Amino acid sequence: MKTNFTTVTRTAAGHSSAHPEYSVIVPTFNERENVAVLVWLLHKYLSDLVSFEIVFVDDSSPDGTADAIAQLQLVYGTARVQLVRRPGKLGLGSAYAAGLASSSGHFIVLMDADLSHHPKHLPAFIAAQRAANADIVSGTRYRLGGGVAGWNLTRKITSRGANLLASFLLGAQTSDLTGAFRLYRRQSLAELLAYTTSRGYAFQMEVIIRAEYSGLQIVEVPIVFVDRLYGVSKLGVWEYVQFVHGLLGLLVGL
């Protein structure tokens, strides 16, 4: 299941002259206050390192997130900032699929829009992928150097407990099954999305478990997850219910 990509022409700076090397796909819903800072940070940490594009997938945010992204396109250009508008909340997996269809990078970064996934970690992701020729680089809160900032004790225990339970039951080697900050080879992600059926909190778990079971090479990079400063968290009781449902489905179906 390893993926070999066709070599593309390089400019003097080492960036692709045809398509960007990396596509950063960012699903959004009511993230108007965060998108400008996120784009600035991505530009800061990636612009001198690789060629890249940012693909926002907005599910008709009532706070005007799409309009804010459109303004960013005027500043950075539509080649750097792309916007996929959807008619409503259609699910995380379909948002990634829509972003993938609109992107052209050989490697795909998936991350949240709320600044909990800091772009400063991406150079380490890229270096780790190149060093190991990995199919997936997964950001982890649960290896030495990783962690969480801004969570109360209850949320820390719940998140860690969910990961430990799923790892034990599924025999997983990846330490952060529910983390959403990852780098994929394009073809690997496309294949995984085609088979993943879970929704919500369980989605990331199913993707990485299927990747392990498929024999894809996964490396982990420690990250510090910082709770959002602006906006409202999407995580609620229903997300935990979906996680349990997804875990049970994997136990039966894999």
Strand content: 15-25%
* Percent helix range: 40-55%
Number of strands: 9
Distance between the first and last residues' Cα: 18 Å
Main β-sheet, spatial strand arrangement: 3-2-1-4-7-5-8
The secondary structure category is: alpha/beta
Q: What summary fits the major beta sheet?
A: 7 strands, mixed
Indicate the low-confidence ranges by residue numbers: 1-17
State the shape. Answer: globular
Mean pLDDT: 86
Work out the helix count. Answer: 8
| Radius of gyration of CA atoms, rounded to a whole number | 17 Å
**Topology order in helix (H) and strand (E) letters:** EHEHEHEHEEHEHHEEH
Layout of SSEs?
Elements: E1 22-28, H1 35-46, E2 52-58, H2 65-76, E3 81-85, H3 92-102, E4 107-110, H4 122-132, E5 136-140, E6 147-149, H5 153-170, E7 182-185, H6 186-195, H7 201-213, E8 218-222, E9 224-226, H8 237-253
Parallel strand pairs: 1-2, 1-4, 2-3, 5-8, 6-9
Antiparallel strand pairs: 4-7, 5-7
Helix pairs in contact: 5-8, 7-8
List keywords for this structure.
globular; 254 residues; 9 strands; manganese; DPM1-like; alpha/beta; disordered N terminus
